[in-house]
Fold this sequence. Notes:
Blueprint: H1 6-33, H2 39-48, E1 55-57, H3 58-65, H4 69-81, E2 85-89, E3 97-101, H5 103-124
Antiparallel strand pairs: 1-3, 2-3
Helix pairs in contact: 1-5, 2-5
Keywords: DNA-binding, Transcription, Transcription regulation
Pfam family, one: MarR
InterPro entries: ArsR-like_HTH, HTH_MarR-typ, MarR/SlyA-like, Tscrpt_reg_MarR-type_CS, WH-like_DNA-bd_sf, WH_DNA-bd_sf
Amino acid sequence: MAAKKPEQALVDQWHDILALHARTQCELDRALGRHGLCASDFEVLDVLADAKCPSYRVQEISERVHLSQSALSRLIARLEKDGLVERGMCQEDRRGVKVYLTPKGRTLHGTVLPVQRAVLTKMLAN
């Protein structure tokens, strides 16, 4: 049997990464869905639960969760409607918007954090 060309090996590796991502995303959505969240919801809560900063600008969150600004704005609006986050004006720049985790959001994050970590361990640990 002939050896694969190096570029084909890279393409195969890329497809394996995409497949692992898709399987992991589905498993996260299934597990977190029992708590009313999807994986993207959790990622935003996880960023906001970061002890280094009590709030983040929407753009800062966008850079960490790999969502477009518009998709993130819709997600934040949904989390705000559910009482998990609040938005407020940025004191340093009145044009900016900061997002804060509410006590309800912090509690839910603490509840689902072990669920998310367990899924990651199951799907990604070798």
